[in-house]
Amino acid sequence: MAKEIKQSESQKQEMPLGKINYIMMAVCLVLIVIGLCLMAGSANQGETFNYDIFNSTRTTVGPMIALLGFVLMAPAILYRKK
Q1: Which of 14, 22, 31, 38 has its CA at 20 to 30 Å from residue 1's CA atom?
Q2: The pLDDT value given to residue 50
Q3: Which residue positions in the chain have pLDDT lower than 70?
Q4: Where are the alpha helices (DSSP H) in the chain?
Q5: Residue 6 has what pLDDT?
Q6: 38-75 as b/e, with b when 16 or more CB fall inside 10 Å?
Q7: What is the per-residue pLDDT for 5?
């Protein structure tokens, strides 16, 4: 019985991702949410045309930040401590 306990302790399974991976993924998720929030805004209502839908923040900056979050997610998952 003592041998079984020692074997199970020595065969501890490691987590597939470390603490730094989860931190990096959380940062990427925050970037994605910020990008999506920058793209959000009011739409056209009734007879008036809302020119704010062509704002550079909604059309360029927001999508670039969200894309950066998605692109950096892969290295965040694949990162291994040396």
Answers
A1: 14
A2: 79
A3: 1-11
A4: 2-10, 19-39, 56, 62-78
A5: 58
A6: bbeeeeeeeeeeeeeeeeeeeeeebeebbeebeebbee
A7: 59
pLDDT for position 2: 56
Query: Within 10 A of 79 (CB to CB), how many other CB atoms are there?
Result: 14
The tokens for 61 are 């900056």
Taking phi over 0 as left and psi of -120 to 50 as alpha, with beta for the rest, 51 belongs to: alpha
Q: C-alpha distances in angstroms, 56 versus 1, 30, 51, 62, 64?
A: 68, 21, 11, 9, 11
